Amino acid sequence: MHAPTQTTAPRKLAFASLLLARARTTGIPIVALAMAVNAAASDAYYQAEIMPILVESCYDCHDYESKKGGFSLDDFFTFSEVSSDKERWFAVFKNLQAHVMPPPEKDPPSAENREKVLKWIKRDVFEINPANPDPGQVAHRRLNRVEYENTLYELTGIRIDTADLLPADDTGYGFDNIADALSTSPLLIEKYIRIANDVLDRSIPTDPYEYPAQKLQSNDFKLETGEALDKSLLFSESHRVGASIQVDQNGPYQIIADINTTRFFNFDYGKAKIDFIVDGASIGSFELIHSPEPDRIFNFDLELAAGTHHLEIELTPNYDVSKIESEMKADIDSIVIKGPVQQEYLTLKPVYARYNPDGLAPETPNERKKYAREVLQRFAQKAYRRPPDSFMVDRLTEFALSGIESEDLSFEQGIAKAFTAILSSPNFLYRVEKNLPAQNPEAYPLIDEFALASRLSYFFWSTMPDDQLFALAAAGQLRNNLDAQVIRMLEDSKSQAIAENFVGQWLQSRDIPLIGLNERAILEGDGRPDRRFRLSSNVRDSMRKETEMSFMHVLNNNLSLLELIDSDYAFLNQDLAAHYGIEGVNHREMRKVDLPPGSYRGGILTQGTILGV
C-alpha cells in the first residue's frame, strides 16, 4: 500500500508563475490565463490542505487495493481529476456530512478537518460562492393541473375540474411542479384550446344585457308544516312545497326551474308528476322519469302584478308504488324569476365588467379598436403575469377585429377569440421568468419582480398573483416589502394550498384516500384482523387534514421543525381519535388536542398518513 504523491503548494504556485510568463510571451488570452492560474491555485490547495486529511482518514479503505465502494483516491491525484467527477465527490460530501464515512471502527477526522473538507467540496469542487451563489439554469415551468385550474378561475370566475379534463401531471422528485417533468404535447395543447373556448363561452356574455332576476334555492321552499325543505322529494311519496316571491312592477315574467333527478346505472321504473303552481293556479305540469340527463330545465312565461305571489311545486307518484320499488328522487337546484321581460328593464350584466369595466364598446371603428386594445392589454397582463409588449397586444387586437369584421362576429365574440389565443399561449401556460439587468458583470442577475411575484403566489397559493403583488412588482417595490407580503399571503385563506399541494406531496398526505390497506396483514395480539384498518372516507380525510394542520401550525407559529417529529399535541376529531384509541375527544371538527403524558402520537411519524404510505 502506498500514499499518493504530494506536490507542495510552493511548487504549484511556481508552476502558475511559469504559466504567467508563458502567457506573456505566447499571447494566451487573459481568460485562458486566469483559468490556468485558478486551476493551479485549486490544485495547490487540494494537494497541500485536503489530500493529507484524506490520506490520514480515508486512504486505508480507498486505495487501489481496497477500493471499497468502487472508490479509490489513487484516481484523484490532481484537482482536475477531482472536478471531472462531481457525482463521486457529491457522494463523498453526503457520507462525510452524515458521519457515515469513515466507518465506526476507523478513527474519524477531527471536527475541524471534517468541516474543512466539506467546505472545500462545496467551494472548489462545486464552485459554490456564498457571496454570489449560482442559481443554475431555470427552465420555463408549465402550470400543473391545480395551478392551471386556479389561475383560470381567478381570470374568468369559472371553476373547472381539471382532473376530468386533463391528463395527470408527471412527477419529478415526488412533486408535480418540477419544470423538467412537465412536458407539453400537441394533444395537451388541443385540450387547453378546447377548455379555453368552453370557459370563455360560459364566462363572456354574448349579450351584454340581462333582465332583473331573483333566485330561489331549495331551502327557500317550505313544507306544509312550515319547515324548510332540507331533503330530496322522493318519487314514492307526495310532496307540496312553497315559497313567496316579490315583484316590483307589473309585466311579463319568466320562471326558470332547474330540477335535478337521480341518475342510476340501471334503469329505475319510478315516475312522478311535477306541477308548478302560482297563486293557486297551475302554470304547467310534466312527468319526471329516469334519464341519463339528470338536469331538467322548465321555462314558463306569465304575467304578474306588482306585489307578493306564492309559488308552489307539487310532486306526486305516477306509478303503482305498491308493485314497483323505486329510488328515484328530485332536488330543487334553483328557481329563477326573471323580469319584467321588457326592453326598458334591460341592464348591463355584472359579469360584463370583469372584462369590459368601461361598459359597451364604442360604435366608431377607431374608438372600437382603441377600446378592444385596452381590454386585451388588461386581460393579457393578468394572464401572462407581467405587462405584455406593444407588438403582442397589437397582434391580439388585429386578431380580434379580423374576426369581428370578416367572420361577422359580435364585439364580445371577437374579444373571446383573442382571449382563447391568450389562454393557449406559452406566456399563460408557462411561468416565463425574466432577469433584471446585472449590476455587476461577475454577479448572477436577479429575477425581475413580476417573476418574483409569481414564485410567491404559486408557492403559497398555487395560483396567480393578486392585485397587491402586481402593484408592488410594477412599482419595483416587492423585494423591499417581501417579509410583509409573505406574512400577508400566509394569513390569506388561499394559503391552504401550500398544505394541500406542498405538504400533500412532500409527506404524501394527499395519497391516503387512495391507499389500500390490507387489514388481514395487520393483526391484533390474538391473531384476528384489526378491523380499525377498514378506514372510512371520513377517517382517511381526517388523517390528511391532521398532517396538513400539523405543518401549518409549525409554519404559522414560526416553531422549530423538530415539532414535526416530536410534539405533545395532535390535530384530531372524534373519529380519528377513536381510530387512534385516544379518549376524551368529542368534537367533529379537526382541532389541536393536548395528548396525555406518555402518548407516542405526537409528531408526523405516527400519523396515519405517514404509516399508511
Principal-axis shape equals globular
Strand content: 5-15%
The radius of gyration over CA amounts to 35 Å
How far apart the termini lie comes to 48 Å
Quaternary form: single chain
**Number of DSSP strand runs:** 15
Taking the sheet with the most strands, its summary is: 5 strands, antiparallel
Number of helices: 20
Overall mean confidence score, pLDDT: 86
How would you classify the helix and strand content by structural class? alpha+beta
The portion of residues assigned to helices is 25-40%
Poorly predicted tracts of residues: 1-20
Keywords for this structure?
613 residues, 4-stranded antiparallel beta sheet, 15 strands, 15% strand
What this model shows, in words?
Helix 1 runs antiparallel to helix 2 (30-58), helix 2 (30-58) packs antiparallel against helix 5 and helix 17 (496-506) crosses helix 18 (537-556). This protein has helices at 9-26, 30-58, 79-83, 86-97, 111-125, 145-156, 162-165, 186-203, 352-355, 365-384, 390-406, 411-423, 426-429, 449-460, 467-474, 482-491, 496-506, 537-556, 574-580, 608-612, and strands at residues 141-142, 209-210, 213-216, 233-234, 239-247, 251-261, 271-278, 281-289, 295-304, 307-317, 329-338, 347-348, 430-431, 569-572, 591-594. Residues 1-20 have low confidence and may be disordered. Strands 3, 4, 6, 9 and 11 form a five-stranded antiparallel β-sheet that branches. The protein has a four-stranded antiparallel β-sheet with strand order 5-10-7-8, with no helix packed on it. The chain starts with 8 loop residues before the first helix and ends with a helix. The longest helix is centred in the first third of the chain and has 29 residues, at 30-58. It has 20 helices and 15 strands. Strand 7 and strand 8 form a beta hairpin. By secondary structure, it is an alpha+beta fold.
